[in-house]
Amino acid sequence: MVTEITPSLELLRQPPKPDANPSAPRLEDFFTFRLAVLLNMISRQTHRFSGRGISITTSQRRILLFVGHFPGQTPATISRLSQMDKAQVSRTIKSMERHGWVSSRTDRADGRSKRIGLTASGRRAFKHIAPISQARQIELANILTPGEVTAFYRVLAKLTDYTCRSEMGPNG
Questions:
Q1: Domain count, the chain
Q2: Which of 15, 65, 83, 119 has its CA 20 to 30 A from that of 32?
Q3: In a domain? residue 34
């Protein structure tokens, strides 16, 4: 059976409805689905704003901002802290090296991993994108009251803490 849906995000603007059939929950009422859709929308819009004047992918933008704020990290650290896939981080860093935005140097401590830094071109791109990304954050925060912003960050911290503990397992 095919369920037709209206191609609209209006469903996500409504609070979840009590489910009449608990064995068949509605996707639009899933908390994780709503978070994923919102994140994709925000990311796409932020990319449109920050990409003006520079040809850059969403993954490149994320890594550029990360390395601009935390220079000298390894790809493994970037992957772990950004929760981006390790292979995606590696491919993105390679493409950024080809663009001349980042450079890598062998980690002196272990001799195997690479430390990633911005080149002069990467610093210029960072100086272009960082203020736009910051303005976007302020714009999004300004649609909420200060209490809602505080509550939002509290909820994010609680969900992050729970998810981290869940990933580590009962003995983590």
A1: 1
A2: 65
A3: no
Is residue 15 within a helix (H) or strand (E), and if so which, with residue range? none
Q: State pTM to two decimals.
A: 0.77
Q: Which of 155, 150, 161, 164 lies closest to 31, judged by CA?
A: 155
Return the residue matching tokens 């509605």: 26
- Using one digit for the tens of pLDDT, what is the confidence trace for 118-155? 999 999 999 998 998 898 889 999 999 999 999 999 99
Bridge partners, residue 70, by sequence: none
* Closest C-alpha to 65, from 101, 39, 105: 101
Determine the 3-state secondary structure of 104 from DSSP: strand
Q: Is the pLDDT of residue 115 over 80?
A: yes
Is residue 54 a contact partner of residue 129, using CB atoms and an 8 Å limit? yes
Other C-beta atoms within 10 Å of 61: how many?
22
61 is in which domain, residue-wise?
55-165
Domain assignment present for 64: yes
